From TrEMBL:
Family in the record: Belongs to the GSP E family.
Protein name: Unannotated protein
Pfam families reported for this sequence: T2SSE
Source species: freshwater metagenome
Domain Bacterial type II secretion system protein E positions: 253-267
InterPro entries named among the record's database cross-references: AAA+_ATPase, P-loop_NTPase, PilT/PilU, T2SS/T4SS_dom, T4SS_GSP_E_ATPase
Length: 421
């Protein structure tokens, strides 16, 4: 807030985080008898969401590189000492033409301009830090700054201000069904950069439009900004709105949420709290870095001591509602297209989880298409047969290449190269 009690106007090139004064400080000042600005509903303008650190103007070189990434519809900007800046465009990482190699002083200057004092200290002490930064209201980036071989490095990931619809993303009907569960756990899995955050954002946006409820997100950092609609949406950023991810999880039950969106479940504590949230009447969306649904279930169970695994299998079998595994494939021409594995927990799936027979889960997925389930390979075959990706790209995405049907041979009625149909 400024001296008049109004929100600070956002300036392009400034990272956005919490304002220097919040409503709690105003309450304390009021208790001390200090005259207060007019805070009536008629005079007060709500501040914009606080999402990234407040700092000095961005370094002009950094701003130019980020604008290059936006102009070329890239996903990631890599800054590494001794090599030129690189951009990932349509999934391919290439050096930016005409850019000289980075040196440590230049990179430190760029990073310092994007970090406030607290986060800069954390970067120096912890040797890494996550945060977000904005060029303007429409151009935001998730940043991981880290050290390698004693030098600073950073990756800036572009975040769309526009949240695509489920239809625009091509999200299958089985995935869309998870929005309608009143409670339970839905896992989103896949490698980094596979579009998990975008799919989750589209689901949260649809819920916010249609369900009168409280949606709580705990993110590190906040990526997509959601507007209050039919639902009230509270977004908490680790390091800005809450000290740690675990602190945010522990406080969640006291914040009366109906739907909870979490970042990655990283350890036993975060997994344990997440399961508790899911079994106490909340619909919880969470992320794991595994390849498929069966591996996600194994990862959760294996995080517990051996003597507790039977109990956790029983607990997980009752709270799990679904697992969505996804990949982003290079579209022919330009762009990316999603491919999805969808597991929805029916009685057969719950029994397999309870009995520890996760290797059989894929067979259930393959035979329950009528319930909205699908294997990743069936999804890959769909986008391949539609002519959106190449056969070589399809094979590169699959753990079961023999199930991928080469459309050149399928049209001729021959056996596809991937194997017999």
């Amino acid at each position: 807030m400024n001296a008049d009690g109004q929100p600070h106007a956002h300036q392009p090139g400034r990272p956005i985080v919490d304002a220097p004064e919040d409503d709690f400080s105003l309450l304390y000042r009021a208790a001390a008898g200090t005259p207060q600005p007019d805070r009536s509903l008629d005079s007060w303008t709500p501040p914009k969401p606080s999402l990234a650190p407040t700092g000095d103007q961005l370094d002009p070189e950094l701003e130019r590189l980020l604008n290059y990434l936006i102009a070329n519809r890239g996903s990631d900007l890599h800054l590494t000492v001794e090599v030129p800046p690189s951009a990932r465009i349509d999934g391919t990482l290439l050096p930016i033409e005409g850019e000289p190699p980075m040196d440590a002083d230049r990179l430190n200057r760029m990073l310092r301009s994007s970090l406030n004092d607290e986060l800069w200290t954390r970067f120096i002490d912890d040797r890494q830090v996550d945060y977000s930064v904005a060029l303007d209201d429409d151009s935001r980036f998730r940043v991981n700054a880290f050290h390698q071989r004693g030098y600073p490095s950073a990756v800036f990931r572009a975040i769309q201000s526009y949240i695509p619809t489920l239809e625009e993303l091509g999200v299958p009907a089985g995935v869309q069904r998870v929005m309608n569960f009143p409670y339970g756990l839905v896992l989103f899995v896949g490698p980094t950069g596979s579009g998990k955050s975008t799919t989750q954002a589209a689901l949260i946006s649809r819920i916010a439009q249609n369900r009168p409820c409280h949606i709580l997100t705990i993110e590190d950092p906040v990526e997509y900004v959601h507007r209050h609609s039919t639902a009230l949406v509270s977004q908490r950023e680790v390091g800005t709105d809450v000290r740690t991810f675990e602190d945010g999880l522990r406080a969640a039950l006291r914040e009366d949420p109906d739907v909870i969106l979490l970042g990655e479940m990283r350890d036993l504590e975060s997994i344990s709290i997440t399961l508790t949230l899911a079994e106490t009447g909340h619909l919880v969306f969470a992320t794991l870095h595994t390849n498929d649904a069966a591996q996600a279930i194994d990862r959760i169970v294996d995080s517990y001591p051996a003597e507790r695994r039977d109990q956790i299998q029983t607990q997980l079998s009752s709270v799990l509602q679904g697992v969505v595994s996804q990949r982003l494939a290079k579209r022919i021409g330009k762009g990316r297209v999603g491919a999805y594995e969808v597991l929805l927990a029916n009685d057969a799936v719950r029994n397999l989880i309870r009995e520890g027979k996760t290797r059989q889960i894929r067979n259930v997925i393959a035979t329950c298409a009528a319930e909205g389930m699908q294997t990743l390979e069936s999804s890959i075959n769909a986008v391949l047969s539609a002519g959106l990706i190449t056969y070589e790209e399809a094979i590169s995405l699959s753990q079961y290449p023999k199930e991928i049907q080469d459309p050149r041979f399928a049209r001729a009625g021959q056996v596809p190269l991937g194997g017999r149909r």
